[in-house]
């Protein structure tokens, strides 16, 4: 059997281009890390590759679930607690820290174009999920939901874990946050009474009111909430999710802007029982 030398040369050139690309990427990510001390660059390890489809286009999507000790370990959770969590009314109350990478175009085994996403979770938690099918299904579901929320996708729940492939494409460094924002600051002493669970009243304000918006301000009324310790706030690029425990309030809203998550600030006024979230606007949502 003979080998076409032109193919070998082509593969060598591609390998050299890939190495050069990785060097340039490392330099660029290093610059980002210097400019932003609240983040750092990590190179995750391959874990498992999940194949699914985007809806309604039925295009192939691959999710590379990677592992790194640089990503925080989620709270300890037993199998029994996981079963109770999945049967509860609000399973989203348990958060898995993860880094969601940008989409990249790849080619599958059939030489067809497809889209791949890299999701990085804690290495110890990943190993735990590998030992228990229930935990594995749970973490895959959370990863899919995270990608859907961040990139406005709809992914099929009929997924398949590839047996002989841990990663599709090339492992790319990710820039992850080392500080969690926004931090909820308490302003005044409490004056509250207990209320039943419901969707809180809220208003969205744009500043300035005329011209290009610079800030989106959410004011959320939370009567009966004793302190900011009862609140779990997640500010996304175009979505805000707030939970007041134990099951007092739950708010999940989208807004027509893309906002700067890193520089968003939240303050809970214990006297007025109002949570104010100030979010710098990057641009209007597409």
Automatic annotation (TrEMBL):
Any one annotated GO CC term: R2TP complex
One family name in Pfam for this protein: PIH1
Domain of life, per lineage: Eukaryota
Residues in PIH1D1/2/3 CS-like domain copies: 211-282
InterPro entries for this protein: PIH1/Kintoun_subfamily (IPR050734), PIH1_N (IPR012981), PIH1D1/2/3_CS-like (IPR041442)
Domain PIH1 N-terminal, first and last residues per copy: 32-182
PANTHER family from the UniProt entry: PIH1 DOMAIN-CONTAINING PROTEIN 1
Name of the protein in its database record: PIH1 domain-containing protein 1
Organism: Channa argus
